């Protein structure tokens, strides 16, 4: 990691995602690091990234990171699974602050949870086709581990439609997930920021499987990193509440409504961000 | 319409869409206007438009149209329902060639098909929320007509997943469409470029309803406009086959596979387009 001298522990944490799914990471951060200011950037003008080429994704990711760096963040969390999978190491080499993706924390949490060393992974088509979770889990595992990875592309539109628990979503979940029962996994890694909202329905299909949520795992690692670097913010002596700022590259009509679903509470204000202009 | 002097009847027809759904319009054009060269532009780097703000959509639409104008098209077809609904009249005022959207042709075809003057309209959330189909149908109708409009946002991801005829898609179709039976429509307008691929499953739910497909209706109106303006291309005397060129702002990994589904035949070559650079 290059020079980090301008970083101060009162600086905010920066989080970016292609859209608003990354708000599940903010939700977890607020719980696990309640003293920290957070700046969120959602690239809603170019969402989704998962269906785009590695070149386009890399260019977008550099622009998003620069946007947060310009706002003096002490840590960048790449909440986007696609970016974490496609170009995280290039980002880490190019910017002077620690950068944390969602893949490694999720992989470590899944390895910590499994007992029979059979792990299932679900994600968007881009995430699964890239094979990143499998590669990272094997690299961290050191011993043998069996991984079954499946893409579940309809889960994102179902969450965005708000069909979190109805017959259609249950049937889609059964179609995608039932083979995991035969394959005998004991742990399922939810490899997409949208999926924590489907935990209830996934549990109906896979009753005895431990669900590992990358958003929560990433927030826990962010705490470890900040503590390690002496950059964690202590509680305010004046009882000042932490500041949360939400930037979007396009102010979409129903952001507030859908955003609330992901963040778990209403979003008061959203600022239009010019990322690439 | 401003000055059209540089237009020649051997020039190509230009078609643009936010992504690849507009290939259903190209498919209809090839059938209805078999002598014409066609240039297709899919803005796959910024797809989808439907979830973005009117400002962003308008900017993207001007850039897409300019891209086609630079390639000397004699007619621009806006295959994107969102653009047709948000800023078609602004485009028409700003460019020196005829510009045709998908909304008016669809509306006219639905009015021609209905006998009981009760028309259903389905589309993405953006299309339905904008209320454009209702407004246009009423304007063209002159007499009373009853319109029931519903958004069916999961149809697009289901088509892209390739689930054109399975139990999940049937259940989604029933959930979205069954109330149309009670409402007694005799005609359903498919207000999205993806929906023609779901005609089979929609017919299972609405057995006695006439399905009107905007892509086919738009290709028919394109023929009428070119004929009227003396710009239709006569059959080649040398038996030269027409030229079809496909530009995408991002060359996505599985474009060829999904594109084939929409176009109805394989796509040989795709060119990367720099729209906004």
TrEMBL record, chains A, B:
What the entry lists under InterPro entries is as follows: Asp/Glu/hydantoin_racemase, Asp/Glu_race, Asp/Glu_racemase_AS_2, Glu_race
One Pfam family matching this protein: Asp_Glu_race
GO BP annotations, alphabetical order:
cell wall organization; peptidoglycan biosynthetic process; regulation of cell shape
Which keywords belong to this entry? Answer: Cell shape, Cell wall biogenesis/degradation, Isomerase, Peptidoglycan synthesis
The pathway this protein participates in, as annotated, is: Cell wall biogenesis; peptidoglycan biosynthesis
Annotated GO molecular function terms are:
glutamate racemase activity
**First-level EC class:** isomerase
Q: What is its EC number?
A: 5.1.1.3
Which residues does the entry assign to the active site, renumbered to this chain?
80, 192
UniProt: substrate binding residues = 17-18, 49-50, 193-194
| Reaction catalysed by this enzyme | L-glutamate = D-glutamate
- In which family does this protein belong, per the annotation? Belongs to the aspartate/glutamate racemases family.
**According to its UniProt entry, what is the function of this protein?**
Provides the (R)-glutamate required for cell wall biosynthesis.
Protein name from the UniProt record = Glutamate racemase
What's the source species for this entry? Answer: candidate division WOR-3 bacterium
């Amino acid at each position: 990691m290059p020079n980090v001298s301008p970083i101060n522990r009162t600086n905010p944490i920066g989080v970016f995602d292609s859209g608003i799914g990354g708000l599940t990471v903010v939700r977890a951060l607020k719980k696990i690091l309640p003293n920290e200011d957070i700046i969120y950037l959602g690239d809603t003008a170019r969402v989704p990234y998962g269906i785009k080429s590695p070149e386009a994704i890399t260019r977008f990711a550099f622009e998003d990171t620069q946007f947060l760096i310009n706002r003096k963040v002490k840590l960048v969390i790449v909440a986007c699974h696609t970016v974490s999978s496609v170009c995280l190491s290039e980002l880490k080499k190019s910017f002077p602050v620690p950068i944390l993706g969602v893949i490694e924390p999720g992989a470590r949490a899944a390895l910590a949870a499994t007992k029979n060393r059979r792990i299932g992974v679900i994600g968007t088509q881009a995430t699964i086709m890239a094979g990143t979770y499998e590669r990272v889990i094997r690299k961290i595992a050191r011993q043998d581990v069996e991984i079954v990875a499946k893409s579940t592309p309809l889960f994102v539109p179902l969450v965005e439609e708000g069909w979190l628990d109805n017959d259609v979503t249950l049937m889609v979940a059964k179609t995608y997930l039932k083979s995991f029962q035969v394959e005998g996994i004991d742990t399922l890694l939810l490899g997409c920021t949208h999926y924590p909202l489907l935990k209830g329905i996934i549990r109906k299909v896979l009753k005895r499987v431990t669900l590992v949520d990358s958003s929560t795992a990433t927030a826990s690692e962010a705490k470890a990193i900040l503590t390690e670097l002496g950059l964690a913010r202590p509680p305010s002596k004046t009882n000042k509440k932490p500041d949360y700022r939400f930037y979007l590259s396009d102010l979409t009509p129903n952001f507030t409504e859908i955003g609330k679903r992901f963040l778990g509470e209403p979003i008061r204000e959203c600022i239009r961000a010019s990322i690439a202009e």
